[in-house]
Amino acid sequence: xxxxAKEVYEKMxxxxxxxxxxxxxxxxxxxxxxxxxxQVQQMADEGLIAVSKVERQEDGLIDAIRIQKLA
Length: 71
Known about the structure:
Blueprint: H1 4-11, E1 17-20, H2 30-45, E2 49-56, E3 62-69
Antiparallel strand pairs: 1-3, 2-3
C-alpha cells in the first residue's frame, strides 16, 4: 500500500491543513486505509504534524483524517 500520509505531508506547506482520505482510483480501500491512522500517529509523535480531526463511519472505520503540518 502506498504511503498516503507521507504523500499528503510532502505536498503541504508549514502551517497548512489538509484532509487525508482514501482514493479509490489509486487503489485505496477503506479497510486498508485504517493503517494510515498509525502512520499519522507516528508523524504526530515525531512533531511533524498535528491531528485536528479523525472522522469515522457508523461501523467505526476511519474514512478521513485532518492534519496540520508543523515542520
